[in-house]
Write a structure and sequence with these properties.
The chain is built from 27 helices and 16 strands. It is an alpha+beta fold. The chain has three domains: 206 residues, no CATH class; 247 residues, no CATH class; 141 residues, no CATH class. α3 packs antiparallel against α4 and α11 packs across α13. It is globular.
Amino acid sequence: MRLEDEKLTKTEFIQQLCTKPSLFNKRLTELDITSLTGIVTYIKIDTNNYHVLSRFEDDEWIFPATKATAGSTRSKNRFNFKTIKNTTFRLMTKWILWQDYSNGLAVGSLSTNTANLKTFFQWLMLSKTNEKQGLTAFIAREYVAYVNTLTHKFKSEDKLLSIKTKAHRLLAIERLYHHCRMFYWVKEHPWIDSSALEQAGFIGQVKKNAETNSKTPIIPAEVLTPLCVFTHHFLDKAAMLLDLRDKLTAFEPKNINSKKRRYLQSIQSEFDTLHQYNEAIVLLRDSCIFWILLTTGMRIHEVLGIERNGYKTEEKDGETYYYVKSVSTKTYEGNAEWIAPKVAIDAIKILERYSQPFQATLDHDLKAALNENNHEERLRLEQCSNKVCLASTQKQSNKISILSKSSITDTRLPNLCKQINNDWNLSAHQFRRTFANYAVHSELGDLRALKDHFKHWSITMTALYASNDDLDQELFEELLREKYWVEEEIKYSWFELDMPITGGDIAEKIMQVRSNEQNIKTFESHREMAKAFSSNIPIRATGIGWCTNDDDGCMGGKCDECEHGIIDKRNIKHWEGMLIQQLKLAEIDDIGEPGKQAIAKGMERCEKVLTSLGINIDTLKAKIHTQNNMA
């Protein structure tokens, strides 16, 4: 690492750049790279001056904060080559990293690729023979065997690496060969007539399944619903918590906690200790992030990149639409927008107030950095300024920074589950698919557990994404993928022989098709048959069933009688609830004969549907009767 403050004029900077054109006008040799010097990373101070962060010959390279996503830890921007003891390996790592960086690869990807390369070199250095032998097909074959034995911890269990992870490990060798063939140590292609993906088994149907079938779990309703209740409680009392913070901040003396605690107890009754209060303030921040992630489909770095006033409203056809603004670096989109319900905007406004003290400290630190000509710190603070997700880092002398992505995902989100006594391993990337899944169910007419908050999760929202290029287009594609997947799974289940369904003509036709052995033999698989017969069937949820009508015609909630209606096991809870209502109504004495007849007809309808779905009515009634007596 270069410790001096290296400030260069524009002319000096251009002269010392590592990317000299002459370097590429000849066939490179190992000696050329060994003697290579020059500037690799830098920041621009003003029009005519630059500040050097690292040179090719340095043993540590520092990348500008602007090259990383919001919420990245500072360690991710630093590459330490001193841990690679073999000088040839160290030089090759630098050469590969510099070429990838010159070609625009993001710092996060550079970090992952370099880590995989270091793992290969560490394995080589376990054996002096392998270290000296050079890259050959034999060495590559040995490394493949080694990677196949590697495990990682998952819920306290040792599990073999996934095929995709193994592929990334082996791609490091492939990249080494392609970038460093001029080195004497690199002798031959690691696998003749093959590839890293094939060696890892990441090809064909396996690769296709990995790309089309998301491994990211959807947060289950039994976890999500109590989490929503818990976190929204903090949003409801945000004003009270932040008012308390302002009073405690103004209280003198500030550094005597015993007096501060007594003062806290004198102005409120909810918290007995400062620790309880401090934890509540942090939970308020985490709850805001939870709601933004859940209701927008944003990635965590996009949430952490939200600035003050980072939202807008739009009036359309008498409706108010809300949009969140941030920066997306995942697909190099830059500035992007996400449609959101009002609860997300409320969460951002709370974070704006929450971050005010951190912003005040940041402004002070920024002035100090400017006065001290600390260009690297100035740039870092400017990147953090006006963000709503700020924090003070104790390990770095209480420096203000954007909240860490890893801290949110690895610690704070799982902590929310602990608060509701649930061991679900909650992480930030689960919210994007959960959002897409709930949005699709909304479009199908089923708002599920969170309908009060998701007023625009509908076909209107999908249309807005399709027509507005400012909105996150990759999220729109995710919505379409999830929609296709959800609809396919629903329809596929109808064609399974052990799936009870009932309803009108459409249900009868499906049962006839699925029981016809000749139909099954015509297709390669049962799923292909289901796809063929159901591809043109429209579908939307009605709550008590599924409607397959392709227009707005509806019989008014009589899905069990309508020719377009299908009812399956997913609807059982609705019909059980309707039966419970009829049983309660039957206990009323003064409803007259017409009322009793209506109840009897309604009960008969419920019993017929539930029986068709495989429910034992006598057992169910006995269970309901027991529950009513206990209540």
